[in-house]
Amino acid sequence: MRKKIVAGNWKMNKTLQEGIELAKGVNDIVKKNGAKCTVVLGTPFIHLTEVVKTVDANLIKVSAENCADKASGAYTGEVSAAMVKSTGAEYVILGHSERRQYYGETDAILKEKVDLALANGLKVIFCIGEVLAEREAGKQNEVVTSQVKNALFHLSAEQFANIVLAYEPVWAIGTGKTATSEQAQDVHAVIRACVAAQYGAAVAEDTTILYGGSCKASNAKELFAQKDIDGGLIGGASLKPEDFYGIIEAYN
Ligand code: PGA
Description:
By secondary structure, the protein is α/β, with parallel strands linked by helices. It has helices spanning about 15-35, 50-55, 80-85, 95-100, 105-120, 130-135, 140-150, 155-160, 180-200, 200-205, 215-225, 240-250, and strands at about 5-10, 40, 60-65, 90-95, 125-130, 165, 210, 230-235. Helix 11 (about 215-225) links the parallel strand 7 (about 210) and strand 8. It is globular, with a radius of gyration of 17 Å. 2-phosphoglycolic acid binds near residues 215, 235 and 237.
């Protein structure tokens, strides 16, 4: 059975103190009401150590939102996969469309990051998704499969077991415009078939594929009910414990 995951992506929000409050709030509500999925908090680098200390490790996992494409050395301002791992974080989000779009992260750079993350024992939440013009041209399947192939298909099946995929149509991120559950399911099925072609049906069946893009309490249940949707990567709605729990609750 593949893992169901609801992961928050705080992006560049919350001071350290606010982040600790938010983590505490999520931890309290999950502790009180339970969760039938794996809950992950994706936080800025500087929050990681404190958030790891704040949450109950058996209830909530912690993720970075990025890591460097180099192992160590003279790369001012960068944070390596080994540094992320040393905070106690278990996951790292890589390939988010905002990193691709604003920081020029290509498939080749992401491949380096994925390799370093895995080599340092992190699990990767790897984001893929088409922009609006690609969707309008009917190219979404082509775009997501090439993103997956270019950055991930050099991995062995054993390594690939540490990859969680997140389909995030760029036109749905932060726009309030969610993909319909049917649109999302269609692409998720294509992604799973592409994984099956490379690694076999059993690996594809075990691969967690999250949906992201304006996912909220009111639409999570319908999205998560789709056959190939195994949870969500949540931006805006992960910034308040009640909103985030409303999505986690879709699995209760
Ligand atoms: P959103 O962001 O939920 O605010 O649309 C999702 C994401 O970018 O991961």
